[in-house]
Amino acid sequence: MPLMIEFPGFRPEVFTLPLFGFEFALRWYALAYIAGILIGWRIVVAAIRRPGLWPGGRAPMTAEQVEDLLTAAILGIVIGGRLGFVLFYQPGYYLANPLEILKVWQGGMAFHGGFLGVVVAGIWFCRKHGVAPLSLADALALATPPGLLLGRVANFINAELWGRPTDLPWGVVFPGAAAQDCPGVLGPCARHPSQLYEAGLEGLVLGLVLWAMVRGGALARPGRVAGAFLAGYGLARFVVEFARQADPQFVTPDNPWGHVALGMTMGQLLSLPMTAAGLWLVARARRAA
Question: Which residues contact 45 (CB under 8 A, 6 or more apart)?
Fold first, then answer.
């Protein structure tokens, strides 16, 4: 029997409390969102308070304006993330059940949708406060990896978004009938802990790369940090998709890998324009230097 790891006995709730006749539950995923946003906010404030990091030795906004940005970014993440999941992954189901779109607490968020939501929020913020868009993009990019790391760890704790079956010794036996539905596998089915792969690449590694770039003066070249984030995230997500189980709505007996076009998954397709945009921004920043 191949080596494998039994999934730890995590619960999706941090704690539950009776509240006004209802049961309030704080879930790890919600806690990850809250902590990631707060950490990102403090990272941006810390960078703003060091004007020497920015073009011309002048920060693109004030610490007080960052609070306005925080509100806009939260709305962009939640609304964009939810609508992205609806439109990219299950449009047919939500078209037939539109009220289900509002049930965010039941899960169903897409990073690419949240990213587009933050872009819209950022455009609004720049127009309102007269902030340089590329410098704002750099600040947001620097703030994002901690939230990605925490979110993917929460996915692992929730035993969701697991990977494809594997016989590697670090394969994890996730609970649930869906996770154990592995054709041709006798006994427990171990899967790639792809959530942790993403946490390591999109969160830890990418965050360290961006931090090293900032220490090297990258914020002084508008668009360079944002470009590195987009390209880095797109590449990391594209690679991990080879180990991540495809979304069930795209999997059929004739298409077990869940490819949607050009032999790629939906996650890979959505990552390609991000990577291209990131490389363009990095090249643009170098030409402008």
Answer: 63, 66
- Give residue 157's identity as a one-letter amino acid code: I
Across residues 217-243, what is the average pLDDT? 96
Where b means 16+ CB within 10 Å and e means fewer, 59-75 reads bbbeeebbeebbebbbe
DSSP conformation letters of 60-88: SS-HHHHHHHHHHHHHHHHHHHHHHHHHH
State the Cα–Cα distance between residues 13 and 205, nearest whole angstrom: 28
Task: Give the up-direction half-sphere exposure of residue 273: CA atoms within 13 A in the CB hemisphere.
Answer: 6
Burial 184-219 (b: 16+ CB within 10 A, else e): eeeeebbbbbbbbbbbbbbbeebbeebeebbeeebb
- Rounded Cα distance between 139 and 45, Å, is 9
Token pair recorded at residue 40: 């990102």
DSSP 227-256: HHHHHHHHHHHHHHTTTBPPPGGG-BTTBT
pLDDT digits (tens, 9 = 90+) for 32-71: 988 999 999 999 999 999 999 999 999 999 988 998 898 8
CB 250 within 8 A of CB 258: yes
pTM of the shown model: 0.88
In this prediction, residues 166-185 reach a mean pLDDT of 91
- E strands, 32-132, where? none
105-136 pLDDT, tens per residue? 666 778 888 889 999 999 999 999 999 999 99
Helix (H, G, I), strand (E, B) or coil at 136: helix
